[in-house]
Request: fold
Amino acid sequence: MTGRHESHDAGPGLLSVIVPNYNYGQYIERAIRSVVDQDYDSIELIVVDDGSSDDSVAAAKRALAGTDRLVHVELIEFGRNRGKLAALNAALEVAVGEYSVILDSDDFLVDDYASRCITMLRRARLRDDQVGFVYTDCALVDRNDEFIDRGRSTQFDAALVERLSFLPEPAVTLTEALRGAAPFDESIRKATKHHKWRRIVANGWSGVHLAEPLFCYRMHDANMSGIGRKVLSEAESGSRGERILSGYWEVSPKAVAAP
Reply:
């Protein structure tokens, strides 16, 4: 592991943004820029390169050179590809924020994503201290950042988490809840986010849905879930309208078939 690790305090309200990356050098600078552009001031950024064979590390270093307004920045480099959950486990070893969000390196955040989600999470926890995360809808965009359609999640239902992958990857989450579900099973290479969410919810945490498109989910041929090929094919054939994302995201192999 290599990178820049500055001395820093967690501080109240610090948000740890974790960006796992594997061969998304063409997109990672956009992802990092969206973190820097947040209207929320207390952010640390942890980028984990998972043994990329493209120019990802060089692209990440270029982008990280312009992140002085962030509280802390770190780049972790794996010597070989170990999988997304290994990247998440490594990031959690150094993350110190009160809140965390996992941002895939081919996606990017709307400028007020952090402030809106953290405000909602704080308010929700005043009513129910078992609320551990806030998640949103998204805009589906192509490789050139052009809007395709809106992607919609649904209201939180703990029982539904067992059999449907309706929770998006990026969600502002109490780091306590995320770390309590770790370490994640690094042998799982598909449906990794569903594995993560099932563990968090199994520990008794619940979530709140903010039904606005506050992050951009990039559709392309190399999406791990295969959603990009499906959505782009549908759009090219003239199919338009909001997409219910649980119909596209894979479920964990260990998920049950019925509630």
Summary: The beta strands are 15-21, 43-49, 72-77, 99-102, 108-109, 131-141, 147-152, 171-174, 206-218, 243-244.
